[in-house]
Design goal:
By secondary structure, this protein is α/β, with parallel strands linked by helices. About 30% of the residues lie in helices and about 30% in strands. The chain has 2 domains: about 180 residues, Quinone Oxidoreductase, Chain A, domain 1, CATH 3.90.180.10; about 120 residues, Rossmann fold (3-Layer(aba) Sandwich), CATH 3.40.50.720. The chain contains 9 helices and 16 strands.
Amino acid sequence: MGSTMGVRIEAHGGPEALQWGPVDLREPGPDDLLVHLNAAGVNYIDTYQRGGLYQLSLPAVLGMEGAGTVTAVGPGVNEFAVGDRVAWLDVQGSYAREVVVPAERAVPVPEGVAADVAAAAMLQGCTAQYLVTDTYPLGTGDVALIHAAAGGVGLLLVQLAVAAGARVVATVGSPEKAELARAAGAHDVVLYREENLVTAVERLVGPRAVDVAYDGVGKATFEADLALLRPRGMLVSFGNASGPVDPISPLVLAGNGSLYLTRPMLAHYVRTTGELRVRAGAVLGMVASGGLDVRIGARFPLGEAAEAHRRLEQRRTTGKVLLLP
């Protein structure tokens, strides 16, 4: 067991629970890569783990995604070599200067894609990709309601939904964020703090006209989604930025038009190495070709992870938040 510098928690709590200092680094196994971190992504799942909504075995180093340069490879690794640039997701412990990454969870970073952009694109980009291609496969003419459309997932989700031919109704919290959503291609933007969400969306597309609601906000928008979906529409609840949704009776779904409700998680859509690399390859390929713009809204040193978490939870960020060693 070695050590490196990183961000750990010894107890669940607020941002102040994040501690910067030496952390344990397990010895790379035969199928592992040792990677020098260039950038780690900050995601809402990190805040859920820190706060205890998602339980971790403590003490723990936070962080699920990043990008960097391979400095050592295990004897069982054939597809990567020292010096290769790789990105990853779903690898616990990514808030550290050195990260042990299972080779099966790593993907190559294409030429022309900077390491920080690759880190920014992985978790949120693959999330947006599976949401529009698999959870509810969007097509021409679909009406998609996308909440938090100026956030990291939101901006990517808007772009991919528009590319699939959908009409996008985006919700945001400020005029500045509205401009970002429009620049990403949203056809309509609703400032949810200034007007009633249901009334505003119905004015734009009509009553019960939304085919799918992509909701990473959770508690604050859930009931509005139910009121806006067409009969047999789908509510995709993929996050809890405003708090977890209260328990719901299946009869509520029936009474609102035989609705579908799903609570997807990225881990279940990238379970195999093949699926991970197909999704990540599609995302990074679009970034490399200029077909997908990844906005990095803020960069913090690793040692300031607590402030990064505060900004994210206070909804004071747009696009992706990164930590840099």
